[in-house]
Write a structure and sequence with these properties.
Blueprint: E1 2-5, H1 10-23, E2 27-31, H2 37-42, E3 51-56, H3 61-73, E4 77-81, E5 88-92, E6 96-100, E7 112-117, H4 121-130
């Protein structure tokens, strides 16, 4: 599966990622250097038993506050500092890997492509574990 969303297709892009989030059965891992409260809102669409870990390059004071408020009301989201990735990835249930050209907070603002990658997840998960 692969495709392109064009500038202005904000809702379609958001809906696409929402369906990925809703389809998760056990876990979601997001690698995205630009996370804000809109990304947290997206994760309210997950099932309550689905864990979420976000890898991002920094946690601003605003994001820390947003995360604190989110975690006080919804199932906990774990955020880890990670600055080794330029691209954005969404890993679903440690089985499916999506490469997403835009930051989740910017879906549909400009053209971006996405693709489901047919790769073994073990190497990627090992590399993430090394950086914890």
């Amino acid at each position: 599966m692969q495709g392109v969303f064009f500038e202005g297709e904000t809702f379609n892009a958001y809906q696409f990622v929402t369906e990925l989030v809703r389809g998760a059965k056990s876990s979601l891992i997001l690698i995205d250097n630009y996370v804000d409260d809109t990304v947290l809102t997206l994760f309210t669409k997950r099932s309550h038993n689905v864990s979420v870990t976000i890898y991002t390059k920094q946690v601003s004071k605003q994001l820390a506050l947003d995360l604190e408020k989110y975690n006080s009301q919804y199932a906990h989201i774990n955020v880890k500092i990670f600055d080794k990735s330029h691209d954005r990835f969404l890993i679903i249930d440690e089985k499916e890997l999506y490469h997403i050209g835009a930051s989740l907070k910017d879906l549909g603002k400009k053209w971006f492509a996405f693709s489901k990658m047919d790769l073994s997840m073990s190497r990627i998960l090992e590399k993430l574990a090394e950086n914890q």
